[in-house]
Design brief:
It comes from Autumnicola lenta. The chain is an all-alpha fold and 232 residues long. It is 75% helix and 0% strand.
């Protein structure tokens, strides 16, 4: 039996369990089901992953450890540790995408779209900057947040460049992955800065689920340039 056929039903079951855990505030079930977002596609796509690729192997290890931090207490130094892991993961992801980039002529819509991403990222970085400055003795934390948002900005720029210069199925998965990462981060920030909201938690976890899937779709898809008309 092809294990990939199990992906969709298993993914739907885990996502349903996660939503149930969020609605009824079952914290342990929410955390374990969120870890399964990453574990299930890892197991099912394992044979298609090329572990000779150092970017892939290092990224998966670092990203997996960043996911495990959800089981740690909500203390500032654990949060900083998670940010450092994510910074490393995003830089590795950017490096992987740049391997497939070749220069071609761009178009105004894609440039506008990229600028929109940068503005959103800058807006939420400014909010975080102002929020963290309210707490004395937090310059180290502020510096890590600055590096984190810089790594997100680099990731967004790379996604834009890769898509502009590729127009391949792999590049579509990559830019969708970056969008999921950025918007999941936005919804998490909204909860931290404004209020805890059930709807925001649901959307954030669904985006996190999409992130986990797109990671493996990106790494297991071969780079094959497609005609731009196929995207119109």
């Amino acid at each position: 039996m092809n294990l990939k056929k199990l992906f969709l039903p298993l993914a739907c079951i885990v996502l349903a369990i996660n939503i149930f855990a969020i609605i009824f505030q079952v914290e342990l079930l929410q955390e374990t089901s969120r870890l399964l977002f990453f574990v299930i596609p890892l197991v099912l796509f394992f044979q298609d992953l090329r572990f000779s690729n150092n970017n892939l192997l290092t990224f998966l290890l670092v990203f997996f450890f960043s996911e495990l931090t959800i089981l740690l207490p909500d203390l500032w130094y654990f949060n900083i540790f998670k940010l450092l892991l994510l910074i490393t993961a995003y830089l590795l992801l950017s490096r992987e995408a740049l391997r497939f980039t070749k220069k071609v002529k761009s178009n105004k819509f894609i440039l506008f779209f990229g600028g929109f991403l940068f503005l959103i990222n800058g807006y939420f970085f400014t909010l975080h900057f102002l929020k963290i400055r309210e707490h004395p003795g937090s310059m180290a934390e502020l510096s890590i947040y600055a590096l984190y948002y810089l790594s997100l900005l680099v990731l967004a720029i790379v996604a834009l460049i890769y898509y502009i210069n590729s127009y391949s199925k792999k590049s579509v998965f990559f830019i969708a992955l970056v969008l999921a990462i950025i918007f999941a981060d936005i919804f998490e920030n909204m909860q931290q800065i404004y209020l805890l909201d059930l709807g925001l938690s649901l959307v954030q976890n669904i985006l996190h689920f999409a992130t986990a899937m797109l990671i493996f779709f990106f790494f297991t898809t071969k780079e094959r340039r497609l005609n731009l008309r196929q995207f119109l």
